[in-house]
Amino acid sequence: MDFSLTPELKSLQLEVRAFVAEHIIPLEKDARQTAHGPSEDLREELVGLARRAGLLTPHASVELGGRGWTHMQKAIAFEEAGYSTLGPTAMNIHAPDEGNIHLLEVVATPAQKERWLKPMVQGKIRSCFAMTEPAPGAGADPSMMQTTAVKDGDHYVINGDKWFITGADGASFAIIMAKMEDGTATMFLSDMNVPGIEHVRTMDAMDACFTGGHGVLKFTNLRVPASDVLGEVGKGFRYAQVRLAPARLTHCMRWLGQARRAHDIALNYARNRQAFGVQLGAHEGVSFMLADNEIDLHTARLHIWHTAWMLDQGERCNFESSRAKVACSEAEWRVVDRSVQILGGQGVTGETIVSRIFTDMRAFRIYDGPSEVHRFSMGKKMIAGREGH
Amino acid sequence: MDFSLTPELKSLQLEVRAFVAEHIIPLEKDARQTAHGPSEDLREELVGLARRAGLLTPHASVELGGRGWTHMQKAIAFEEAGYSTLGPTAMNIHAPDEGNIHLLEVVATPAQKERWLKPMVQGKIRSCFAMTEPAPGAGADPSMMQTTAVKDGDHYVINGDKWFITGADGASFAIIMAKMEDGTATMFLSDMNVPGIEHVRTMDAMDACFTGGHGVLKFTNLRVPASDVLGEVGKGFRYAQVRLAPARLTHCMRWLGQARRAHDIALNYARNRQAFGVQLGAHEGVSFMLADNEIDLHTARLHIWHTAWMLDQGERCNFESSRAKVACSEAEWRVVDRSVQILGGQGVTGETIVSRIFTDMRAFRIYDGPSEVHRFSMGKKMIAGREGH
Amino acid sequence: MDFSLTPELKSLQLEVRAFVAEHIIPLEKDARQTAHGPSEDLREELVGLARRAGLLTPHASVELGGRGWTHMQKAIAFEEAGYSTLGPTAMNIHAPDEGNIHLLEVVATPAQKERWLKPMVQGKIRSCFAMTEPAPGAGADPSMMQTTAVKDGDHYVINGDKWFITGADGASFAIIMAKMEDGTATMFLSDMNVPGIEHVRTMDAMDACFTGGHGVLKFTNLRVPASDVLGEVGKGFRYAQVRLAPARLTHCMRWLGQARRAHDIALNYARNRQAFGVQLGAHEGVSFMLADNEIDLHTARLHIWHTAWMLDQGERCNFESSRAKVACSEAEWRVVDRSVQILGGQGVTGETIVSRIFTDMRAFRIYDGPSEVHRFSMGKKMIAGREGH
Amino acid sequence: MDFSLTPELKSLQLEVRAFVAEHIIPLEKDARQTAHGPSEDLREELVGLARRAGLLTPHASVELGGRGWTHMQKAIAFEEAGYSTLGPTAMNIHAPDEGNIHLLEVVATPAQKERWLKPMVQGKIRSCFAMTEPAPGAGADPSMMQTTAVKDGDHYVINGDKWFITGADGASFAIIMAKMEDGTATMFLSDMNVPGIEHVRTMDAMDACFTGGHGVLKFTNLRVPASDVLGEVGKGFRYAQVRLAPARLTHCMRWLGQARRAHDIALNYARNRQAFGVQLGAHEGVSFMLADNEIDLHTARLHIWHTAWMLDQGERCNFESSRAKVACSEAEWRVVDRSVQILGGQGVTGETIVSRIFTDMRAFRIYDGPSEVHRFSMGKKMIAGREGH
What we know:
Four copies of one chain form a homotetramer.
Chain A: H1 7-24, E1 33-34, E2 37-38, H2 40-52, H3 71-81, H4 87-90, H5 97-107, H6 110-121, E3 127-130, E4 148-152, E5 155-166, E6 173-179, E7 185-191, E8 197-202, E9 214-225, E10 229-230, H7 236-272, E11 274-275, E12 278-279, H8 284-312, H9 318-343, H10 354-361, H11 371-383
Parallel strand pairs in A: 3-6
Antiparallel strand pairs in A: 1-2, 4-5, 5-9, 6-7, 7-10, 8-9, 11-12
């Protein structure tokens, strides 16, 4: 048992912290941010900053041009990246690309990597992951998928509707989940600017941190050549799991940075504001909230570190990543909610970035499986004695 | 003890419910809503609808053209109005005008009423209440006020900065709180379009339900004639209390309607969506949240009814309105947060109005005294044995 | 809508409050209390005090010698009785007799009333209600009942095991629920000192407020004449509902008194103890807990009053009594838990009665349906649109 | 960063787990347990079992006959010991002896160690720590100490009252905190069976896990020779801190074992009990509680491991042990409360050991500093920027 950060991890932490403080935070008030996320133009500027700093797509393998970070390295660095709302976009470690890069590294063919993965790792293009569907389709329960893929010669023909497709607007290509005639699912790769894919609209979302927002897509007789199947036919649900456990955890990491940022701003406010004759932070009603923030931040960090370490040991961590996801998303949310409360009126306006973090973060208790679905899944495994540890 | 709604109250409830359902809810997607609230144009259309329905400014006295509603009548009707995000604007019962109308009825001179109150009751003009200040001024602790009023002949000269001034942009006049040389505070009435008042900017707020948003004002040698003092010189803090207790409670009423709306949408979704092979609502993880919503909604309603009844008995209800404000703002918030969670992805997008209610409502735990300030004040009174009941 | 206490209710409140303060609280340290509740001897002394004060079994009808209290009168008076841990025992309004008296008044034959109800109302004998069974029998789910009743001539022969039978030790008679051959259930009346009933043991329970504790019973070929069937054969589950809704609510009332007592002791302590240089209650960490206690006590009282009023209107209140039971049991528990915390070390010892209230009350979140069963039942009705109001 | 248990730690875990399962759990229903803890007789039997297993006082240094465990080894082993309510007593690692042994090892003179520490490490005698006082003396705020020590030749004369002195009844000696004339505090060692020490009574406490219960002591002109001062005169408060941080953490460890035990019993019940037609654990209302238990147990364990590791690095961990104490005591309490709820009626009776754990554990949120005092202290340090990490 050893909780020390190696010199390498410590140096990584300081490297990303400095990059974010010097280059990214100053851009947070940049006007090129919209209700549907940073503009493509702003994204390119951010990515350029990370590229120059040697911090672009660092989780990708060295072969691909990344730094081949372990999960533990990601735990340290992604928290620092998340300290700015724009940090993950700059470093190209945001959903959905972060997870898609991981998935393609594991599953894609050399040709597919050359065509789609490489430019994505270089920050030149973006992707989206087209799984979620409107009712009565696949939501928290992926088995309800309605989008179909039917073999037609050496092509597959895909029909269906998707929504909540993060980053769809402006994405160069999509990973599409569709149901086969035998009830299994398959993943397909497709450029977005092809006949058969319609970007119907961008949804009005509470969050505004993902470039391209959340889109609604319609597939009408989309023809995908068999060579563009991602991995093996029929293994879509299995790959989705491959993608999910680590992707869940990187969410926890980035949002931990956001929560820490909100807390730091609230702490600073409590130090400097006066109320009822004394420093605001001298009120226990405030200082107890700060203490609870500290407890929650530390709790989230410990869950992340532990699960990242397990993943680095080669464990699949289905149970553990559910546990970490619930613990972190709820602890981090409490931190941000308390920070808003400490800031009072300022907490609910753009005077600080905390209100932005608050509205961005609410969805985290829902994305990648609502807390309820994770509790459901954990409980089932525990009752069956299959929690696996 | 009698919890029955009199036939008159029952009929009032149905009247407002029908008005909101038929005339107001259809306008909720109207494009004339901005990040800073409904446009003035939309507000006028809404007010026109209420006028035609005989539901405009109904809490004002009959002499002034209102219906002279008791607090109990407000409890019933304002909940119904709040069922739409636009209902309170339509009926002219939203903050800050609702409270300002009440205050002017109690304190203003006949000339002041003729000039400012009457057109406000008729929905022709709007007002704002300029009390809150940026640090180091008056926030949750009004005694920290920095804005000064100095007597100069038969005028007062006002200097200072205000912010979070709801409805400032587009308001015809303001009620201004300023500190006198002897440490007391006075309320002044002033038109907004006069030299000495600058509307610096509108703040970016999480909520978007108040026409005119939340403004920053600067007073530079604003000259107010002595005849425009509201009430007596030096009694500003006392009047603020007169305004506050009932104003707090009407917030609870309107937001109860909003919370009920969010719950109804979530309940409907739980009835119709499938997940993991059964109806979503057949999952206890969901139905327990619905049961908790029901408990919280009923709790809020009982607190409101009880405090409204006490106000109708002539009690000042300083303690009781603090108690109701904490209980209701937190219960109603939990309802909306759970409704978002039940709706999943849809809860955090504009697919339903629930995400709008969520971001609008967060500030309610802060406006009119954060929960912490009310707990502080209640606790102090309890320790001193002055909770007064 | 009228929240005023009528002069009659106000006088009732003062009458019971004075009785408890003068006659019952002084006996709280009486050594005749055991881990299994007050001794029979102590109970008789207490009952004698209530008899002399005209406060014995006041909820029974006037014909039977009670005062025929409405649910609203009970709401006021039972809270006051509960202010002492011994109050409900003294006034003969404790579980299970309180509910059994109600049930027998509604369902029993004149002969049954003469034989069992009358002496119970007079406080001369006690009863028990034998429904709950050990696994795999009837617990929170009564339909799992294993105890059987088989017709044999003009008798029924009952076999089975029961446990958690409150008051069993020392009870004169039992109401026994048993399953018929057709799957319905029937209630039977039987003296306890008959062949076929064995009182196996008294369970070690966390609570110590019920005379006779909680017993384990074994029925072996217990023969009950058909004339001792309570009500109609096959209607056992229906009668259980008749008994349950009001019984649940009287639990809420009595425990509200207990919670208020704990709060008063904690408040008094916070006023008089010093910590870190100031009065304990001057710490917001303490005064906020007191404020939350006040909110929770008021919430519970409003739920009780509202549901009692509905019962007095003749409503069955299945849904409403579930709602009140969850709201009250959880709010009252929070009050007592916070009171323990404020009292610090003293809260967890016999220095005050609060630790007694704490251990007595924990079961209230389980008895008469755990919170989870009520949420389950409420949620089901809401999803089905049958919440009935 | 390395979360793996070394082979040595893994083997230690299994060693203690097996010892507790085979030798200690079978004694849990032993009748020699009283409302004031295990009898001295039972304690000696338990200690004998640990001695034979080589697990007696293992945290003491090897020189003294212990195994010289690090904090990390304690973290692993004490959790296992705590899995039985009697485990810590058997292994002589319970409060207050566990902390007193640590303190004496650090501070006592060779003669003092020979006389008091050695037999305590051998499990032959017990000690108590006499710090807490009745109002208006030292409670959560030790600076309020009223007990005085006055120099008289080569003796000190001690007068004062103490209470909540764990293990006082039957202790062979006491560590006594008293205030000096200059306002500092000093620790004294004294045998208990001497003139000047009166054991007034044992308090009725909710918990029943400490041999000797919690006593009230009176010191009347107790004469302590200067050679029995523990450490230096005037350094009492500093030594109390030396004792406190690790002592707090060992509480967290032992109670983690208790919480895990309660959870395991509830999980087993949920697997085997039926309700409403299905396995109890198939109800999400139950399985969600189990999932939350898992999250809380893991959270507590991570906090403990991290703080133990820091202590092993030589850090004082004042801030960190406060953080761990709040996080663990509240998380572990929630686990036990939920376990009671899942068990229903059985949870509140002696049918399982969970009700014992519940009543034993409540005080943990108060002992060694209530949660509020730790939040107070953490908040103060954070506001001052002195949280030290």
